[in-house]
Structures are given as structure tokens and as C-alpha cells.
Amino acid sequence: MSPPAKIPVTLFTGFLGSGKTTLLNRILAAPQYADSAVIINEFGAISIDHLLVATPRENMVVLESGCVCCTVQGELVDTLIDLMRQRGKNGVPAFRRVLVETTGLADPIPILEVLAAHPDIPVYYALHSVVTLVDGVNALGQLEEFRESRRQVAVADRLLISKSDLTDAQALAALETKLAELNADAPRLTIDPRTADTRLLFGAAYLGAAMVMGIPLPGGLRRFRRT
What we know:
Elements: E1 7-14, H1 20-28, E2 36-40, E3 52-57, E4 60-63, E5 68-71, H2 76-86, E6 97-101, H3 108-117, H4 121-124, E7 125-135, H5 139-145, H6 147-154, E8 158-162, H7 169-182, E9 188-190, H8 219-226
Parallel strand pairs: 1-6, 1-7, 2-5, 2-6, 7-8, 8-9
Antiparallel strand pairs: 3-4, 4-5
Helix pairs in contact: 5-6
């Protein structure tokens, strides 16, 4: 008998003000992601009140889109295990992917290590990719000042540059150069988080990845381990 298919996990990271929450709201409204579980830091940052259908558990809600959305209460490991235990039960949809939004000040490396190397999590979940939002206006200063910002860029499998309409071509070119220094492998897309085509955010293979076994580690984590 074949082992059960692992649930792919996508990590959304990016410094404060880069547009993660706006983009997540956009994703939650897209029908192709209705079979997702979304882990966020706190509901206060997400406009979900009008989408709420039921509350299966204190920190878990089902949205009209079909997504299940929960807060991190304690360790990420506990949240992921709790989601798996509730999957398909007590009103929780049988989700086929997990989207994790970090705080703007989060160092993503410990999260990636947990997803990849924890003794229990890789049994059920497979780290699929890291999507990092970059503030087109403020990122150069943030990358200079904050180690967390540099790490968020360095581990990304896809870099999404927001607010490009609020800056000039010279500043954007300087930012592109800096991003290439930190992570030359990740594709870079200029987006508006409010209107972005969600089909382009994860790469062409993502929508079918939920049923794929043995998903490899994201390139970002492999690059980090080589440094």
C-alpha cells in the first residue's frame, strides 16, 4: 500500500509593509485555492469577518471560499498537527495545501527547518516553496538594516516586488541588483497584491502539487544550507 500523499506547504514571507496580508486576502478569494488551509499570525490583520462560515475550534474558522483559516497558538508544529487531526472532521474541510504567512520581522530559516526536519511534520507535509514579497519603495533600506529581511530574500523561490508604481526606475533597478546579489536563482515578478493573478504566484506546477509524493526541498533552503 502506498503511503498517503503529503500536503504541500507554501511559506509567505516579506518584511513589514510589503503587502503579504493584502496578497493573502486576494488568494483567499480565488476559487482555485478553496481547498487550502491558511496559517496566519493573527486574525486582526486579515479581513475575514465577511467570509466567516463556522468556527470548528477556537483558533480555526472555515471561510465561504472553502478555505480553513487558523492562528498560530503556540508552536507552528502544534498548529500543523492539530490541522491534520481535524482535517475532514468537525466541519474542517479536507484541505490539500497549506499556506503559511509569517510576521514581517520573522526569520524564515527556523520555520523552514521545522517543516523539513521535524520528526513528525515531514510525515504529513512537504515544504513546496517560499514566496517572498519585497517592498519596492522601502526594501533597499530594510535589506541594509535588517538581517531578517536579507534572509527572507535569500531563501525565496519566488520574489514578488510590490509598490513599483510608487518609486522610480532608477530605484527599482538598484533594488533588482541587490535582490540578484542575495538570490540570483529566484524569479522576480512585479505585482500589485490587490489585483495579482494568483495563478502566477506559486509557479505553474503548484496547483497539481498536492497529490505529488516526495516534493523536494525548496531551492531557497538548499541555497541556505550551502552557505
